[in-house]
Amino acid sequence: MGEIFKNIPVIPYEGPASKNPLAFKYYDADRVIMGKKMSEHLPFAMAWWHNLGATGVDMFGQGTADKSFGATPGTMEHAKAKVDAGFEFMKKVGIKYFCFHDVDLVPEGKDNAETAARLDEITDYILEKMKGTDIKCLWGTANMFGNPRFMNGAGSSNCADVFCCAAAQVKKALDCTVKLGGRGYVFWGGREGYETLLNTDMAFEQENIARLMHMAVDYGRSIGYKGDFYIEPKPKEPMKHQYDFDAATAIGFLRAHGLDKDFKMNIEANHATLAGHTFQHDLCVSRINGMLGSIDANQGDTLLGWDTDEFPFNVYDATLCMYEVLKAGGLTGGFNFDSKNRRPSNTYEDMFYAFILGMDTFALGLIKAAKMIEDGRIDKFVEEKYASYKTGIGKKIVSGEATLEECAAYAQKLGNVDPGSGRQELLESIMNQILFSE
Ligand code: XUL
Ligand code: CO
After folding, report:
1. N or C: which end of the chain has fewer CB within 10 A?
2. Cα 129 to Cα 137: distance, rounded to the nearest angstrom
3. Residues 193 and 145: beta-carbon distance below 8 Å
4. Is pLDDT of 247 > 80?
5. Is the pTM of this model over 0.90?
6. Using CA atoms, how far apart are residues 385 and 406, in angstroms rounded to an integer?
């Protein structure tokens, strides 16, 4: 197959003064920040489903973008054309990873066996394409929410036959992930939740999800998979209540079911905000629990209450994200643009502008987060805010020596107690100063 994205070159770094729309202004792959290259801090990935699949179809209208790449959608020829387009795209935009659902790679066959055979064929084709490049899979997953059989859930389905269909998909998607060198394997519980408790045994459903995850870990380890499994929390959509509501809920679930050694979090910005949190909140919850694994990079719209999956342009949020990532010592996974072009942005050029926007946003976030840490004023304030726990009664509380009676006796001797100003406005102005100075 010939060149697909004609007239689009390999995207160069030209720096902040450039007005070339097909150039990076901030993402400079080899620039070293805090001892590591930008490309190592930011292992970016392309989401197969959005970039190669999404045409802009919504419930009000047809697609606006042509993603046929010269082949007929729904055929294996088209599946291969998507691989060709994907590899040309990744090389031109300069990213080394992709993420996929099983059914993004191939059209579903009439049964599991036919889909599995198609997956064998396409992953051979992808492996061939990977040769001579450093492009690999970031993570794979199974789509256990689209097919009508999953209407009552996958692992959480009332029906054991459906549970087994889900198991078959997980097994095959794990095989493909390992074959393509994947760093991670994701469970996003699209239909693992409920609409009404009048027809739902919540405890049983959650135990069954854990059973499916244990089976996946056992099988994955048996075929030599060494990467992390991830839960990608989301509070709702498509279900009214989803079990993996947010990072705190998912971490509690993993601990309750003995899965916490094999699983980490894949935090998606727009999912965190749907849960009523900031993106930074869910990243921080994951980090402090040692479970920040990977990120689905996108952003929502505060005026819309659904998962709009926009390409990230908010530098403030990206900076606070990178602050958490730097504090975590980096990601074992990467930054998957689980983002899609807006429906009227329907040309091939728009696909590149979107990635340039997203990658520049995270590059800026990285530069500014490193500045926040090097500047030190914010970290110093936080450190000093808790200074009362470094000596005296505070130190005894932290070491576990103090009893309730001792704290109460200590409190009786106190007069007026002043915990000190939180200095929020000062800290926000320091953050602005860091964001808007060179
Ligand atoms: C859905 C979503 C998924 C997961 C993978 O909101 O984010 O695409 O990332 O299933
Ligand atoms: Co996602």
Report:
1. C
2. 12
3. no
4. yes
5. yes
6. 23
Domain boundary (375, 401, 427) is at 375
Residues 6+ apart with CB under 8 A from 267: 232, 233, 247, 279, 282, 283, 286, 292, 294, 295, 296
Q: Exactly one of 28, 84, 102, 104 is catalytic; which is it?
A: 104
Residue 24 lies in a domain: no
- Distance (Å) of CA 99 to CA 52, 365, 385: 11, 22, 41
Determine how many CB atoms are found less than 10 A away from the CB of residue 37: 13
Per-residue confidence (pLDDT) for residue 85, from 0 to 100: 98
Residues 55 and 171 in one domain: yes
SS3 assignment, position 202: helix
Contact present, 208 and 202 (Cβ < 8 Å): no
> Any idea which residue has 């084709």 for tokens?
125
Instruction: Show the tokens assigned to 199.
Output: 């027809």
Domain end among 375, 390, 425: 375
143 Cα nearest atom in ligand 1: 10
Token pair 């973008």 is at which residue? 65
The 8-class DSSP code of residue 50 comes to I
Tens-place pLDDT, residues 292-308 = 999 999 999 999 989 99
Give the residue, out of 141, 279, 298, with the most ligand 1 atoms within 8 A of its beta carbon, to mutate for a pocket test: 141
- Residues 166 and 210 occupy one common structural domain: yes
CA nearest to 156, candidates 204, 96, 102, 107: 204
CA nearest 231: which of 196, 193, 260, 273? 260
The verdict on 368 and 403 lying in the same domain is no
Q: Is the CB of 307 under 6 A from ligand 1?
A: yes
Q: Provide the domain count of the chain.
A: 2
Question: What are phi and psi for residue 431, nearest 5 degrees?
Answer: -60, -45
User: Per residue in 219-228, pLDDT tens?
Assistant: 999 999 999 9
In one letter, which amino acid is 96?
A: K
Question: Is 232 close to ligand 1, i.e. is its CB under 6 Å away?
Answer: yes
Q: Name 292's bridge partners.
A: 265
Q: Which domain holds residue 396?
A: 378-435
Residue type, 283: L
Known catalytic residue at 101:
yes
